[in-house]
Amino acid sequence: MAHPQPTRTSLSVAILTVSDTRKAADDRSGARIAMLLEEGGHAVGVRAWVKDDVDAIRIQVATQLVGHDALVVTGGTGLAPRDVTPEAIEPLFDKTIPGFGSLFRQLSYVEIGTAAMVSRACAGIIAGVPTFVLPGSVGAVELAMKQLILPELPHVHALLHSSVS
Fold this sequence. Notes:
alpha/beta; 5 helices; 6 strands; globular
């Protein structure tokens, strides 16, 4: 059976930054995600910010999914006590994309060494929308966007909206 090919190369993507301290003016990672999406031919549907709080993150995720083809979340994936983004988002996944986190850590290891093992980057599908959860550093965002998300986003979208089974 034929593998579905992307029919849309330009998608609308929401960006959510999880942080107790960052807002629009100093959110370098969110800004970099937006720039890379636009350079890749995608539209930034919305940018939003939320504190490191499980319930608040879940509310924002549900809000940002509406009307967008994908969601990229940055921040709160480390091991510090306030880092709760994976705990907030992973239970919402209808399907997980385990290869994303595995590849992200593998590629990170090449760049930063063994510190890559503490990353809890993850991805999955929530209500038909691919959702990528990234660390909050600009370097991590660059790596994930350039090497994983941008090359595969149209393909993932095609898979989710294909009638091929």
